[in-house]
Design a protein that fits this description.
single chain, 233 residues, alpha/beta, binds S-adenosylmethionine, Rossmann fold, 9 helices
Length: 233
């Protein structure tokens, strides 16, 4: 069993129901990222906690630069090999972010990561994001779990996504598997960070960022929340 979330994500896991879920999920995440670029091809992007990032080639084609950053070393090695032929994509470790120049990123996108960070890691990440953001840059963090999150909402979100993307029966079966999985044990042991809106805005402010909740969550789960922030004046 993994000792922490970083270890958990560096191993094969059963979070995604199968190839179809994985493909549909990363298609949606890439679509969200491209939408956030707003048609500007000159933006430099940091995808923090990028995971398998299956469609980053499509994102990079719409951006000036795409840094893929993840704590999982095995995953990073896989990404580096996959995107070796993409000059606009660079795979970096979180600790290497310190080496990037201040103000050198226009969009920091952290999709479904904050729930796996303890408070010290979250503060470190927000500090790094603030330093990297250009004066008019944006930080987008998605999938913030509200404290009153109900497991039934996560189940409903998964089944509805699965229905729309044609893997409903597989998703039902996977819910049973998840009940016996490492993910459930890790969730019980390490927990998932949850924040209400006011607390998260305050955490952003303490990190020197002015942020607010977006009208909808970007990604698969409409019961979670997205926040958008900029460097505070
Ligand atoms: C649920 S996945 C999200 C992947 C992708 N961003 C998405 O939206 O599908 C969480 C990812 O966060 C990464 N992660 C966990 N802790 C991290 C940390 N401290 N710094 C950077 N990445 C981290 C994991 O390795 C994993 O790839």
């Amino acid at each position: 069993m993994a000792r922490n979330w970083a270890e958990f994500w560096d191993r094969p896991n059963s979070v995604y129901v199968g190839e179809r879920h994985l493909a549909a999920h990363f298609q949606v995440i890439a679509d969200e990222l491209i939408d956030a670029l707003g048609g500007r091809g000159d933006l430099r992007v940091l995808d923090y906690g990028c995971g398998e990032a299956l469609e980053s080639g499509r994102v990079a084609a719409k951006a000036a630069k795409l840094y893929l950053c993840d704590a999982a070393p095995t995953l990073r090695a896989r990404l580096a090999a996959k995107y070796a032929g993409e000059p606009r994509i660079e795979v970096v470790a979180p600790e290497s972010l310190d080496a990037l120049p201040e103000g050198s990123v226009d969009l920091v996108f952290a999709s479904s990561v904050v729930q796996y960070l303890d408070r010290a890691l979250l503060d470190w990440f927000l500090g790094a994001a603030r330093r990297l953001l250009a004066a008019d840059g944006r930080l987008i963090v998605t999938d913030i779990i509200p404290p009153d999150n109900r497991i039934v909402d996560d189940v409903r979100a998964l089944l509805s996504f699965a229905w729309r993307h044609g893997f409903f029966m597989a998703a039902l079966a996977s819910l049973v598997a998840t009940f016996f999985s490492d993910y459930r044990r890790m969730r019980a042991q390490a927990g998932l960070a949850a924040y209400d809106d006011a607390t998260f805005v305050e955490i952003l402010r303490d990190a020197g960022l002015a942020g607010e909740r977006a009208p909808r969550n970007r990604g698969e789960n409409p019961y979670r929340r997205t926040f958008v922030a900029r460097r505070a004046a």
